[in-house]
């Protein structure tokens, strides 16, 4: 069993509170087998105001979002982080506008999910998340090279999902109506497009969906990223 003091330090670039909290909680709860009971690697976290990210998303200002992520990485690096993760799927699109790895090595959330989907043999993934994520390149860019198709909800469904995320889930509010909305979308994508799994491509979606209630297997991006960070931290180069 590895000494926790010899593990790499994880840097978390936080955006929304619930997503970052779930990621942090998963890391601290699931390290016991590698590092010993109650132990986890050192973790540093930085967050700019989530409202600033929301403003820039509405403007479509990806270079400015990239600048925020870069600044967070710099702060994390100054505090000893060996690599960075961001438990927010949407802002990963900004990686096309800046070389974030010039500041710190980076675990890309969609790459982590893509590896898991490929390992489990999924072929057609329903992608749920913010409107920006569902309409953007983050998941298609990582899944297509593996021969995995991505299916997104229709325009009305994308608007409904985006609204429930920004009006409810980012404030940790879960309602029965919102869950029903999501389940109906998943069922339709399964019936009409033969999707064999669903990507919870918003880091708050695990608050409302999981394998117990979803009609399709779920790929929980938040926890998958956290587990990838645990493995990386426990393997010091």
SSE order and pairing:
Layout: E1 10-14, H1 17-29, H2 32-35, E2 43-47, H3 50-59, H4 62-78, E3 83-85, E4 106-107, H5 109-119, E5 124-128, H6 131-135, H7 138-143, E6 149-151, H8 155-167, H9 176-193, E7 197-200, E8 218-220, H10 221-233
Parallel strand pairs: 1-2, 1-3, 3-4, 5-6, 5-7, 7-8
Helix pairs in contact: 1-10, 5-10, 8-9
Essential attributes:
Rossmann fold; about 240 residues
Describe the structure.
With 237 residues, the chain is α/β, with parallel strands linked by helices. The protein has two domains: 114 residues, Rossmann fold (3-Layer(aba) Sandwich), CATH 3.40.50; 111 residues, Rossmann fold, CATH 3.40.50.1860. Helix content is 46%, strand content 13%. The protein has ten helices and eight strands. Strands 2-1-3-4 form a four-stranded parallel β-sheet, with helices on both faces. The longest helix has 18 residues. It starts with 9 loop residues before the first strand and ends with a helix. The mean pLDDT is 93.
Computed structural class: alpha/beta
How many distinct domains? 2
Overall body shape? globular
Strand adjacency order, main sheet: 2-1-3-4
SS field, number of helical segments = 10
């Amino acid at each position: 069993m590895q000494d926790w003091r010899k593990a790499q330090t994880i840097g978390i670039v936080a955006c929304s509170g619930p997503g970052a909290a779930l990621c942090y909680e998963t890391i601290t709860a699931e390290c016991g087998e590698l590092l010993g009971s109650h132990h986890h690697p050192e973790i540093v976290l930085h967050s700019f105001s989530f409202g600033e990210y929301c403003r820039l998303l509405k403007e479509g200002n990806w270079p400015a979002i990239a600048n925020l992520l870069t600044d967070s990485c710099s702060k994390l690096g100054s505090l000893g982080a060996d690599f960075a993760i961001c438990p927010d799927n949407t802002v990963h699109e900004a990686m096309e506008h800046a070389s974030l790895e010039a500041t710190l090595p980076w675990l890309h959330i969609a790459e982590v999910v893509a590896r898991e989907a490929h390992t489990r043999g999924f072929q057609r993934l329903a992608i749920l998340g913010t409107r920006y994520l569902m309409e953007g390149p983050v998941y298609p860019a990582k899944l297509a090279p593996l021969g995995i198709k991505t299916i997104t909800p229709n325009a009305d469904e994308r608007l409904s999902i985006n609204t429930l995320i920004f009006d409810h889930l980012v404030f940790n509010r879960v309602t029965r109506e919102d869950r029903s909305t999501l389940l109906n979308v998943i069922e339709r994508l399964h019936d009409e497009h033969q999707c064999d799994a669903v990507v919870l491509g918003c880091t708050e979606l695990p608050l409302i969906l999981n394998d117990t209630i979803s009609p399709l297997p779920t790929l929980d991006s938040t926890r998958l990223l956290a587990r990838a960070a645990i493995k990386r931290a426990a393997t010091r180069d």
